[in-house]
Specification:
The protein is α/β, with parallel strands linked by helices. The chain contains 10 helices and 20 strands. It folds into 3 domains: 2-65, Archaeosine Trna-guanine Transglycosylase, Chain: A, domain 4, CATH 2.30.130; 73-184, Transcription Regulator spoIIAA (2-Layer Sandwich), CATH 3.30.750; 204-391, Rossmann fold (3-Layer(aba) Sandwich). The termini are far apart.
C-alpha cells in the first residue's frame, strides 16, 4: 500500500479525527497511487495516522479508518451495520408512515464519499469519490445482505463523481431491477420519486422534519413555496389546512412533478397553483402578499471561492421575501451550502431584515434530521441550515 507522509505539524487535524487530508499538507508520496486507491497516511515522524481513499484535488485523502486494519468485506459490512442501527434507533426503519430514509451519510457514518438512500425495497447509491465508485458493486451486495427489506440497488453517480477522473460513468442497477419510479411515503404523504432523472437520489429526504413543522403553521394561511422541486412543502401545507398554496420553480419539469404530487395526495384540491418562473422575477411581478413563505434554494455556494457571492444571493432572496410577507407572517428560510456557516447565513437573513426595515424573531433554528448525522469531528457535515422567523 502506498504511504503518504505529511509535512511537519500537519497531522494535527488527523489526531483530532478530522477525516480529510488536503493536498497542501502532503510532503511526500512513496509510490504512484491512482485515484481511488487505498493509501496509508503517516506523520512526519513516520507514525501511522490513518487509511483512506486517494484522490486528485484539494481534498487528497478521505480517511476511512484511524486504526490499522484491513479495508475488506468485513470492514464495510460492519460500517453499514452500524449505519443501519442508527436509523433503527431513530425509528425510521419499518415505519408504517415512512418508507424512505438515508442509510449512509458520508462522513457522518465514517464512510466519506458515499451516500445511500433507501426507498422501501430499493437503495440508491451515490458516490462522491472515485474510491467509493470503484467499490460500488461490493457495497451494493453488502447493503442487500445487511438491510432486511432492500432487494434492489440502483447506482446514480454520473453527476457527483470528480469530473476529471478517468473512469466510466454509467448509472444503472447493481442488484435486482425495479420500476424506475416509486411512490415514497413520508409521514403518511405520497411522493413520486424518479431516481433516474431526479436531483440527488430522487428526493430531498433531509427536509422531512422541517416539512412537518411547516404543516403546523399552515392552517388557514396563504403559503408560498419557492424553489418547490417535488412540491414537498406544498403538500404538507395543504394537509395542514392552508387556505391557498402557490408553488414556484424555474424548472417546468419540477412544476409538473409538484402538480403530480399534489394530485396524488389531494385529487380534489382547488387551492393550489403552480408557476414555472424564476424566483426573483416572481417576487418582482407579483403583488400578492403571503402569510407563510418557504425559501429552499439550491446551494448558492459549492466551494469557498463562491461564498461572498452566495451570501449576497441569500441576502437578496430573503430581502424579496421579507418585502412580500404579511405583517405577522412566518418565513422558513434555508441554506444547503456546506461552505456557508450558520453564523454567515443568519447574518445574511438579518441584513435582509434590516434593509427591509422589518422586525423579526427567531422561532426555530433548523438542521438536518437524524438519518443525516453529523460526525462531531467533521463540522462541515452540518450542511443544512434553516431559520423560522416571525416577521412583525
Amino acid at each position: 500500500m502506498t504511504a503518504i507522509t505529511l509535512k511537519p505539524k500537519r497531522e494535527e487535524s488527523l489526531l483530532r479525527f478530522h477525516p480529510w487530508v488536503f493536498s497542501g499538507a502532503i510532503q511526500k508520496i512513496n509510490g504512484n497511487p491512482e485515484e481511488g486507491d487505498l493509501v496509508e497516511v503517516r506523520g512526519n515522524n513516520g507514525d501511522f495516522l490513518g487509511i483512506g481513499h486517494y484522490q486528485i484535488g484539494s481534498i487528497a485523502i478521505r480517511i476511512l479508518s484511524f486504526e490499522k486494519c484491513e479495508i475488506d468485506d468485513h470492514f464495510w459490512k460492519k460500517r453499514i451495520e452500524q449505519a443501519f442501527q442508527v436509523r433503527s434507533a431513530a425509528a425510521l426503519v419499518n415505519s408504517p408512515t415512512n418508507n424512505t430514509y438515508r442509510l449512509v451519510h458520508g462522513e457522518g457514518d465514517q464512510m466519506p464519499g458515499l451516500i445511500v438512500d433507501v426507498y422501501d425495497d430499493t437503495a440508491v447509491i451515490q458516490a462522491h469519490s472515485v474510491g467509493m465508485h470503484l467499490m460500488r458493486q461490493k457495497l451494493a451486495e453488502i447493503i442487500v445482505l445487511v438491510v432486511p427489506n432492500v432487494k434492489c440497488v440502483y447506482y446514480k453517480s454520473e453527476t457527483t463523481l470528480p469530473y476529471k477522473a478517468p473512469i466510466e460513468r454509467e448509472d444503472g442497477y447493481l442488484v435486482g431491477k425495479q420500476s424506475d419510479t416509486f411512490k415514497a411515503i413520508e409521514n403518511g404523504l405520497q411522493f413520486e420519486i424518479d431516481w433516474l432523472k431526479g436531483q440527488k437520489t430522487g428526493f430531498f429526504i433531509d427536509q422531512r422534519e422541517n416539512r412537518s413543522l411547516l404543516e403546523h403553521y399552515s392552517k388557514g394561511k396563504s403559503v408560498l413555496n419557492m424553489f418547490c422541486y417535488t412540491g414537498g412543502f406544498s403538500v404538507y401545507a395543504l394537509r395542514g389546512g392552508a387556505e391557498v398554496v402557490h408553488s414556484v420553480d424555474s424548472s417546468s419539469k419540477a412544476i409538473d412533478l409538484t402538480n403530480h404530487n399534489v394530485q396524488l395526495n389531494f385529487p380534489e384540491a382547488t387551492n393550489h397553483q403552480s408557476f414555472a418562473e424564476d424566483a426573483f422575477k416572481f417576487f418582482s411581478s407579483s403583488d400578492k402578499q403571503y402569510d407563510v413563505i418557504v425559501l429552499d434554494p439550491p446551494a448558492f455556494a459549492k466551494h469557498r471561492d463562491a461564498v461572498r457571492n452566495a451570501l449576497k444571493g441569500y441576502k437578496r432572496l430573503n430581502l424579496k421575501a421579507l418585502e412580500t410577507i404579511k405583517p405577522g407572517g412566518i418565513l422558513f428560510t434555508f441554506s444547503c451550502s456546506q461552505v456557508i456557516s450558520k453564523d454567515q447565513f443568519r447574518l445574511a437573513v438579518f441584513s435582509a431584515a434590516a434593509e427591509a426595515k422589518r422586525n423579526v424573531r427567531i422561532l426555530h433554528q433548523l438542521t438536518q434530521p437524524a438519518d443525516h448525522p453529523i460526525n462531531i469531528y467533521h463540522p462541515e457535515g452540518e450542511y443544512l441550515k434553516g431559520l423560522v422567523v416571525y416577521v412583525e
